[in-house]
From TrEMBL:
One of its GO terms (biological process) is glycogen catabolic process. Belongs to the glycogen phosphorylase family. GO terms for cellular component: cytoplasm. The keyword Transmembrane helix does not apply. This is Alpha-1,4 glucan phosphorylase. The modification N6-(pyridoxal phosphate)lysine is found at K659. One of its GO terms (molecular function) is glycogen phosphorylase activity. It catalyses: [(1->4)-alpha-D-glucosyl](n) + phosphate = [(1->4)-alpha-D-glucosyl](n-1) + alpha-D-glucose 1-phosphate. PROSITE patterns: PHOSPHORYLASE. The lineage of its organism: Eukaryota, Viridiplantae, Streptophyta, Embryophyta, Tracheophyta.
Length: 819
């Protein structure tokens, strides 16, 4: 169905005069307009909403034209299903892509406001958590910019993941209030509503066909968010689903009888579905809620896709279901939308009357899967009993897919029969029978891709090796990318330059731009944390989800060792060191104990270091709270060194490394994920490399597990590593018990494998690399040259390139430019 038609305030207005008229004519949104006779005060928040509505009106006109053009041309269209989208502030992106920053800046100046101040009024949409969601948003931006017929589908989370607050106790999670007032960028679509069923049972009809009936049904209500392309009329849609109960589900008799909770039980249950991102799943209720979220996204989106397919086909000519894959491409962003596979089969068979073979052919030619991890805990496995309870018809379909796959192996690949226990979809271990969602995706999709060359190689050689032997042409690599618009042009326009890296005048200009960004960041840090940092120090930043494999612990132990050595130096010796400000940011999942301990340790170290008058001119440690896209847009332009130090072979790609490199920030990192390709593009001499390689890691783990040693890989703890741990244990950073965290590095890990992430093994080479950083930073000309070459070598990592490859090599879609 088409986006809602809304008449813009000032269609086509691009001059400052017209824009002033557009903004001032709707200074206060209708929901906040004062009563007659009251004075109107055009405060910053009101100015933001007025500006946003003015820009949105412009987008909606382009949006409607885009949809009408797609409907007329009937191109093959991609639908991107993702549980996360991290959009960031929409106003900056919209006026940037529309190329009307100057016009709106002048208009707001005439009304007594600065555009920069108005932008700050917008809250980030809390629709994602980390790299997965940011990648999805970069991809939508590129789809629109490249004029590709594509849409995104997601969920409209009321509270997002959580807002992170840092206290003396460490991380505290509170509800995110991004929808406390309203979002001016979304359009509620009361005409786009689909039923989504849960629980119930399967009935067999006299003709043998099957039907899912009973249970609970909630309504999926669409909210559309326009996504503009850069300097193009094409404006695509991110359609977000909200769960609501029907008014028929409210039991007025029970309510009047005083049984208020019972009367509104279905309403309460519907509200829970889109309340938060990734609700805790330690209990069965938690698991049911997560599965509800995933199925809700898949079912509503597929019903919408099928309806649109029918509308376009019925209007243009007669058609057959076999044409569906020639008009529809569905991309699963990780395993969260896996249930789209059995749901599409169900809709085709039970609702549209297709037989199994035809439905399977349509489904497998339509669906493609992107894998984002090799971490066992991140490859989703759902309890079969929970699945049977919530989605009985889908479990029937999954069982049949698995049975047919097993039959195929036993009849055509007898050499793999012994591998069936690991490659089939259903793990029927009597202790804990589960559905392996990644296996279901691989078996059922026509293409499977990794997100960096190293990651894709690991998938093909290890994780999915047996499947590769069956379907060698199914597997591809699509190295991730980022949109250069948001991550350079809009957040750091000073560095949108390309000259000679050794030109003195250009280096001076580059240095000046970097210093301006560092000063802006220092002001932000002071405002948000109360810590004063020196813009002349080396700004060293690690921002990403807090996880043991990402090794923030390695970073902070390095900082602890640096602090101890500074304390031991004379005042004269300290003057010869490189002053450094080490910044951390990221959220630890609420139930991830060791991750929360790491956050606590960083903050405890910062409290001591930053208040130490002997040392704090040479070292500061800062934790930046509530890391999100808008915070990243402040941190990344001001960065000079960024740490991408995950255990090799464990980070699928990473995209923040691309954002930092694009902004002239040098990387200290392992040969992991996209680091490998970044180092190739910017030059080995401009990358501070350390650590074990991906092919060495399994052997090193095995040796540490078994207590083995060899002439090649004999490991002795580095004295610096032992010193950092003992200094932490000494109570130098407070009375908190860090022994459980430090014990994880010595054989008492929660994984039962002792320093599984090789923090101790990589610590010596990490510290050596940091010494090289210190020396390089002292040579300003060399550092500036390296910084410039980092930006110059980042062209490959544009999401435009990535999406072009998806379009040609997976989706088979072409440009459909709005005239």
């Amino acid at each position: 169905m088409a986006p809602a038609s809304v008449k813009p305030n000032s269609a086509g207005a691009t001059t400052s005069t017209a824009t002033v008229s557009a903004v001032s004519s709707s200074k206060v949104p209708p929901i906040a307009r004062p009563l007659a006779g009251e004075p109107e005060e055009f405060e910053p928040e009101q100015a933001y909403f007025a500006t946003a509505e003015s820009v949105r009106d412009r987008l909606i006109q382009q949006w409607n034209e885009t949809y009408a053009h797609y409907h007329k041309e009937d191109p093959k269209q991609t639908y991107y299903l993702s549980m996360e989208y991290l959009q960031g502030r929409a106003l900056t992106n919209a006026i940037g892509n529309l190329d009307i920053q100057d016009a709106y800046g002048k208009a707001l100046n005439q009304l007594g406001h600065q555009l920069e101040d108005i932008v700050e009024q917008e809250k980030d949409a809390a629709l994602g958590n980390g790299g997965l969601g940011r990648l999805a948003s970069c991809f939508l931006d590129s789809m629109a910019t490249l004029n590709l017929p594509a849409w995104g589908y997601g969920l409209r989370y009321r509270y997002g993941l959580f807002k992170q607050r840092i206290t003396k106790e460490g991380q505290e999670e509170i509800a995110e209030d991004w929808l406390e007032k309203f979002s001016p960028w979304e359009v509620v679509r009361h005409d786009v509503v689909f039923p989504v069923r849960f629980f119930g049972h399967v009935e067999v009809n006299p003709d043998g066909s099957r039907k899912w009936v009973g249970g609970d049904t909630v309504q999926a209500l669409a909210y559309d968010v326009p996504i503009p392309g850069y300097k193009t009329k094409n404006t695509i849609s991110l359609r977000l689903w909200e769960a609501r109960a029907s008014s028929d589900d409210f039991n007025l008799f029970l309510f009047n009888d005083g049984q208020y909770e019972s009367a509104s039980q279905l309403h309460s249950g519907a509200q829970q579905i889109c309340a938060v991102l990734y609700p805790g799943d330690a209990t069965e209720n938690g698991k049911l809620l997560r599965l509800k979220q995933q199925f809700f996204l898949c079912s509503a989106s597929l019903q919408d896709i099928i309806l649109r397919f029918k509308e376009r086909k019925n209007e243009n000519r007669s058609w057959k279901w076999s044409e569906f894959p020639s008009k529809v491409a569905v991309q699963l962003n990780d395993t969260h939308p896996t249930l789209a596979i059995p749901e599409l089969m169900r809709l085709l068979m039970d609702n549209e009357g297709l037989g199994w073979d035809e439905a399977w052919d349509v489904t497998t030619r339509t669906v493609a899967y992107t894998n984002h991890t090799v971490l066992p805990e991140a490859l989703e496995k759902w309890s079969q009993s929970v699945m049977w309870k919530l989605l009985p018809r889908h479990m029937e379909i999954i069982e049949e897919i698995d049975t047919r796959f097993i039959t195929m192996i036993r009849t055509t690949r007898t050499d793999l029969e012994s591998k069936l226990p690991s490659i089939c979809i259903l793990d029927n271990n009597p202790q804990k029978p589960v559905v392996r969602m990644a296996n279901l995706c691989v078996v059922s999709s026509h293409k499977v891709n990794g997100v960096a060359q190293l990651h894709s190689d690991i998938l093909k050689a290890e994780l999915f090796a047996d499947y590769v032997s069956i379907w060698p042409k199914k597997f591809q690599n699509k190295t991730n990318g980022i949109t250069p618009r948001r991550w350079l042009r809009f957040c750091s326009p000073e560095l949108s330059l390309r000259k000679f890296a050794e030109n003195a005048d250009f280096q001076a200009e580059w240095s000046s731009a970097k210093m301006a960004n560092k000063q802006r960041l220092a002001q932000y840090i002071l405002r948000e944390t109360g810590v004063s940092i020196d813009p002349n120090s080396l700004f060293d930043i690690q921002v990403k989800r807090i996880h043991e494999y990402k090794r923030q612990l390695l970073n902070i132990l390095g900082a602890i060792y640096r602090y101890k050595k500074l304390k031991e130096m004379s005042a004269e010796e300290r003057k010869n060191t490189t002053p450094r400000t080490i910044m951390f940011g990221g959220k630890a999942f609420a139930t991830y104990t060791n991750a929360k301990r790491i956050v606590k340790l960083v903050n405890d170290v910062g409290a001591v270091v930053n208040s130490d008058p002997e040392v704090n001119s040479y070292l500061k440690v800062v934790f930046v709270p509530n890391y999100n896209v808008s915070v990243a847009e402040m941190l990344i332009p001001g960065s000079e060194l960024s740490q991408h130090i995950s255990t090799a072979g464990m980070e699928a790609s990473g995209t923040s490394n691309m954002k930092f490199a694009l902004n002239g920030c040098l990387i200290i990192g392992t040969l992991d994920g996209a680091n490998v390709e970044i180092r190739e593009e910017i030059g080995e001499e401009n990358f501070f490399l350390f650590g074990a390689t991906a092919d060495e890691v399994p052997r090193l783990r095995k040796e540490r597990e078994n207590g083995l040693s060899s002439l090649i890989a004999q490991f002795k703890p580095d004295p610096r590593f032992e010193e950092a741990k003992e200094y932490t244990r000494s109570g130098a950073f407070g009375s908190y018990d860090y022994n459980p965290l430090l014990d994880s590095l010595e054989g008492n890990s929660g994984y039962g494998r002792g320093d599984y992430f090789l923090v101790g093994h990589d610590f010596p080479s990490y510290m050596d690399a940091q010494e090289r950083v210190d020396e390089a930073y002292k040579d300003r000309k060399r550092w500036l040259k390296m910084s410039i070459l980092s930006t110059a070598g980042s062209g490959k990592f544009s999401s435009d390139r990535t999406i072009s490859q998806y379009a040609k090599e997976i989706w088979n879609i072409e440009e459909c430019r709005v005239p």
